[in-house]
Description:
330 residues, mainly alpha, two-stranded antiparallel sheet, 2 strands, elongated
Amino acid sequence: MQETLHLSSKHSSLPKSHFPHSHHDFSTLSRPRIIHFPTLSSKISIAIPPKPSKSPELPPVPPPPSPSSPAPQSQFQEKMLYLDSIGLDLFSLIDDHPPIVSASLDDIKSIVDFMYSMGFAALEFSRICGMCPEILNARVSDIVPVFTFLLREARVDGSDLRRVVNRRPRLLACSVKNRLRPTLYFLQSIGISQVNKHTNLLSCSVEEKLIPRIDYLEKIGFSKRDAISMFRRFPQLFNYSIKDNLEPKFNYFVVEMGRELRELKEFPQYFSFSLENRIKPRHHCCVEKGVCFPLPVMLKTSEAKFHGRLESYACLRTRRAIARASEASD
């Protein structure tokens, strides 16, 4: 309950105190107490608030940081210095693969030690990380199954393992179950038996990359059987972009060169040559000399042999023309 003090400006003498009688009359205690001060000029009522039932609870104080765990800035500096010591720039890696920021330094060291134990030199590992920085976010337990798969299922020779990884570092960032094994089975199903010679294809998605290229060859006029035969003959055809490679080269082959699909079926390596630096210049030379070479002869031979053969055919053609003219005059 609140106690109210009534202050009055009237001057009056304080009553004399009386000791209670023997019958203990406490009835006056229930009435408000009025205290009179002579110096106040007006009557003021002051309400005294009740005491709070409980003291307010303060939020728990968090424990101080453990002295054994370094600050995030210190961890970042340690990681940066360590990567620099093995020839890697952390900031460049972060630009290519931002999650590296959260990679544990202990996990990175474990990956580096494992790759060195597999025979990779420091320069090789730096190049691998530059092409596939995701490896620094992996753990050794993620990479061991990839090496096991390459050796046991893809039949890669142990002495060839480093070359395979250096050629296609992204293999190390692929899931064996979801990517490498399904692609291996698909390549084998279309007749590519020696996949160990085309291991760079193992990191490709069957649905997103391999099948669409087979569909494209069917779209431009090849039967499915012939399309698969072309990929079996030249598996690297799977690596070429439809928009930037297959399409423009096929259009030039048909429109400008006027050749038949049969030639592409027999020589799908045509798509591996540069359109601007090899196909067009050599086709123009053949047109000028009035010669039509088979595709392998036109594209595979060196510059010297190509032009030497071109001159030989041109001279032969000239001699034949002279001989025909001589026979006609006789």
